[in-house]
Amino acid sequence: MFLGKPWVDRTIAVLAALPFGYVLWIDLRAGGLTLPRFAILFQLSLLIATLLVRLPPVRVTANPLFWIVAFVASYFGFLTTSFAEIGHALAPERLTDGLSIVSVAADVYARLTLGRNIGFVPAQRRLVLTGPYRLVRHPIYSALFLAEVCVILENFSWRNFALSLVFLALFVVKTLMEESFLRRDPVYEQYMREVRYRWIPGIV
């Protein structure tokens, strides 16, 4: 398959990473980054490094809708910080900062466990069954969700809340699309039966 060729996969990774670097640079230049906002940007920025060193896929989706959702969901996270307005805190700074640190630690742990098997669009690579992947199927997204909740709690306004809801909804859709593609592999189908929860152990 053309999309599965190593040079094609690497080219796509580089092209996808370049806009991330530019938007991150714009956000950092704007200044005023709090710990929750930095946590979101840091976790999304990890995608740059992991894209560039990831393993070529065994198979990758050719569905254009899946590609569009993947790009929009990932880039929209940067836009939530760029277009956020000044709101008011719904929780103490100590709590939002602490949970933000937890989200970053969880994200780094999940990415280290996943290694070079990271994907951007739905693609089949080596299935990882260790670390947080024994508890939930999408621990990186769990960490992102926690970081975004901290952003809402730290700087609430109805506009910021709406931006965050769209961000979370996009990653929920992205999760469902990834699973609809991956479950065609009997091994992943079995993994889904063994690890029942997507994001939060024992809940969902």
Describe this structure in words.
It is a single chain. By secondary structure, the chain is mostly helical. 66% of the residues lie in helices and 2% in strands. Helix 1 (6-30) packs antiparallel against helix 2 (35-53), helix 3 runs antiparallel to helix 6 and helix 5 (139-154) runs antiparallel to helix 6 (158-182). The longest helix has 25 residues, at 6-30. The chain is globular.
Q: Tell me the number of helical segments per DSSP (H or I, 4 or more residues long).
A: 7
Mean pLDDT: 86
Low-confidence stretches: none
Widest sheet: strand order? Answer: 1-2
Percent of sequence in beta strands = under 5%
Order of helices and strands: HHEHHEHHH
Morphology: globular
Coarse structural class? mainly alpha
Instruction: Give the N-to-C terminal Cα separation.
Output: 34 Å
- The total of beta strands comes to 2
How many strands, which pairing sense, and closed or not: the largest β-sheet?
A: 2 strands, antiparallel
User: How helix-rich are the residues, as a percent range?
Assistant: 55-70%
> What is the gyration radius calculated from CA atoms?
17 Å
